[in-house]
Amino acid sequence: MSKMDNLRAMREAKYAESQKRAATAPARPVAPVAPPAPKRVEERAAESPATEDLCGHRNMSGRTCTRESGHPQKSHRYS
Questions:
Q1: Which candidate in 2, 3, 39, 76 could, as Cys together with 43 as Cys, close a disulfide (CB 3.0–4.6 Å)?
Q2: DSSP for 31-47?
Q3: 39/41 Cα distance (integer angstroms)
Q4: Is 50 helix (H, G, I), strand (E, B) or coil?
């Protein structure tokens, strides 16, 4: 047998072993995943900064500028 024939035989033996092991393995129970609870209005308001006094400029990735509205600087600060 050539080297490639030996490699093929080893690969087929490993595949057969893994198939046999998978067939005899007990099935794992699937745990149900509950959706996260919606946040209350107070929590959402505390997380997001007030947009009235911020510049609000958005960059290409969707981040917004955190400088004050009408800032004199040419650059924006994103968060």
A1: 39
A2: PP-PPPPPPPHHHHHHH
A3: 7
A4: coil
Q: Within 13 Å and on the Cβ side, how many CA atoms surround 19? A: 6
Is residue 69 a contact partner of residue 53, using CB atoms and an 8 Å limit? yes
End-to-end distance of the chain based on CA atoms, in angstroms?
64
The pTM (predicted TM-score) of the whole model is: 0.33
| pLDDT tens by residue, 28-73 | 777 787 777 776 666 665 666 554 688 888 888 888 888 888 888 8
Tokens coding 22: 């998978």
Query: In angstroms, rounded to a whole number, what is the distance separating the alpha carbons of residues 57 and 64?
Result: 5
Give the residues across from 58 on adjacent strands.
64
User: Residue 53 in contact with residue 66, Cβ under 8 Å?
Assistant: no
| Tokens read off for 56 | 């609000």
